[in-house]
């Protein structure tokens, strides 16, 4: 049988304990966490069906070809995708290939590999289009977006509910200012 004094002492000790705090992430862990959040965005999720079975397998298990799991370097991403290291670096530096940096090196998580495979699967004319968008002055880009939104509005009139939902989900992920 417990003494009443013991119960009071345990209750006081429990009150004195500090609350449990979530662990603080290191900058590297925070960068990697931000990359993993991109996997859930409609823009990236829309790319997955366009990958081949082999590409999907490499996304799930890059260690089969690269010898280790994520993160991958620019050279390793280039080797896995068939892009040149220079192309990988260009796309990463212009924001098209998601990456994070450590000691000046570009490092890629699975989302970067998915986007890179999508670039590999795209036509050369599409890549040139992306390159022009990345380097276009903002006033020209604004005009192009205006034209694109007009075309999308017309296309949405004839779209199925599923197609319209998929498109608007992607548009809704764009930042609003």
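Sequence proposed for the structure above (177 residues):
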């Amino acid at each position: 049988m417990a003494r009443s004094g013991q119960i009071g002492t345990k209750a006081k000790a429990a009150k004195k304990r500090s609350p449990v705090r979530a662990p603080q992430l290191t900058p590297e862990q925070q960068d990697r966490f931000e990359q993993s959040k991109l996997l859930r965005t409609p823009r990236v999720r829309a790319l997955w069906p366009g990958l081949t079975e082999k590409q999907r397998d490499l996304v799930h298990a890059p260690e089969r070809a690269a010898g280790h799991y994520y993160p991958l370097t620019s050279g390793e991403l280039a080797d896995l995708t068939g892009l040149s290291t220079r192309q990988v670096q260009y796309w990463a530096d212009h924001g098209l290939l998601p990456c994070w940096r450590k000691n000046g090196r570009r490092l890629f998580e699975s989302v970067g590999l998915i986007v890179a495979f999508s670039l590999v699967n795209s036509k050369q004319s599409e890549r040139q289009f992306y390159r022009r968008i990345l380097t276009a002055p903002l006033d020209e880009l604004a005009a192009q977006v205006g034209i694109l939104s007009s075309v999308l509005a017309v296309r949405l009139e004839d779209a199925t509910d599923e197609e319209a939902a998929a498109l608007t989900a992607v548009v809704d992920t764009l930042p609003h200012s």
